[in-house]
Write a structure and sequence with these properties.
This protein is α/β, with parallel strands linked by helices. 35% of the residues lie in helices and 20% in strands. The chain contains 13 helices and nine strands. It has helices at residues 21-25, 48-63, 76-84, 98-107, 129-134, 173-179, 192-204, 219-222, 259-264, 266-274, 279-290, 296-306, 308-311, and strands at residues 39-44, 68-73, 90-94, 111-128, 160-164, 184-188, 210-215, 225-228, 250-258. Strands 1, 2, 3, 4, 5, 6, 7, 8 and 9 form a nine-stranded mixed sheet that branches. Helix 6 (173-179) links the parallel strand 5 and strand 6. The radius of gyration is 20 Å and the shape is globular.
Amino acid sequence: MSRKRITAAAAVLVLATGCGAADMTKQASPFANAQGAKTVTLSVQSWVGAQANVAVAQYLLEHELGYRVDTVQVDEVPAWDALSQGRVDAILEDWGHPEQEQRYVRDKKTIAAGGDLGVTGHIGWFVPTYFAKKHPDVTNWKNLDKYADLLRTAESGGKGQLLDGSPSYVTNDKALVKNLDLDYQVVFAGSEAAQITQMQQFAKEKKPFLSYWYTPQWLMEKVPMTEVKLPPYEEGCDADPAKVDCAYPVTPLQKYLNADFAKNGGEAAEFLKNFKWTTEDQNQVSLMIAEKKMRPQVAAEKWVDSHESVWKEWLP
């Protein structure tokens, strides 16, 4: 999911939607890779779970270890380019990018693995649970065409709508719709926030919807959803993006560091390698940011104040 190959900082962030690595990496912080300076630059992906990771890491780096932390909003694939070039020091939530891992971690060795985040991610297709209870067979992909008329929207061109978020997320959905011969059209909301707004509106009106979605994600607590079973995932079934006809894998989310930073980044690098929390922890902070509209650093401080036994283990 890979997302998501599926998700802020100390201030309100605006989603960056650039398409190319060159454009995105120009947003790099002037503090990244600064020689002799006690600074850290973190990449922030656009979904709220990633914002939660960065907010807590930033708060602790600043208040416990005395670093100045800068954040850069970068889409998923361009973030790998920025990390390789030393324009950012760390990515705290990656949903799996095999090509980038091969190029930068194994071949060029400009990026180093930073360990598990502690959260397991999964992308899939979901319908609201109230719709699944009324029509139990909708949870099998083979029956989706039966409900295409109910899921049609003005944007889906006479077909059922499969709602996706940002085009920058790694998604197999267009290939899946084609290869499974489904009477559906993928419609991009544009961002996680826009997608959430649409799903909340559907739920408020008790309307059916079919959406690309992922776990962990705080919205599940507010709008219960049930996964539609796609053909089972098998190793290699998604190797060719044009021929994908299987479900998304379950993905232990990973951290990655710039290789020089991993080696010479001192306490900051050690702290980020140690940073590991649970889905519940992440969802607590995400919910405060997205639902309660707290500034990320306020949400981070609130979580830090009540979880000292957790984050103390991360300190060098």
